[in-house]
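ok so i was messing around last nite and threw this chain in just to see what happens. nothing serious, just curious
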Amino acid sequence: MAETTLAAAVADLRKLGRGGLKRAADAELKKALSEAAVSARRLVPVRTGALRSSIRPSKRRGGGALTAGGGGVDYAQRVEARAPYLRPAVNKAAAVLEKRLAERVAKVLDGEGRI
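result:
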């Protein structure tokens, strides 16, 4: 019985494919970061629009981030301290990302789809 369970586990892992899980995770991360940027742009206070238009998703080693501000947006840190807009957007995106990845892996392991 243990051999059957081990064989099934190995078969399930092979279904994920070499590098397939990483590619799927990267694709879902990119989608989640883009959605978080849209959400943050809706939440940010607008005086001139410079801060809102500076919000960008960026992929980083081991994950991703939303960036805002820069040299031309000197009040960005003060605005974030008073009325945060990035954190709620990122928190929502993280929850959605976790759910999407779990669903995607479950489908593959159930034989219903591909990574």
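not much to say yet. Residues 2-109 form one domain.
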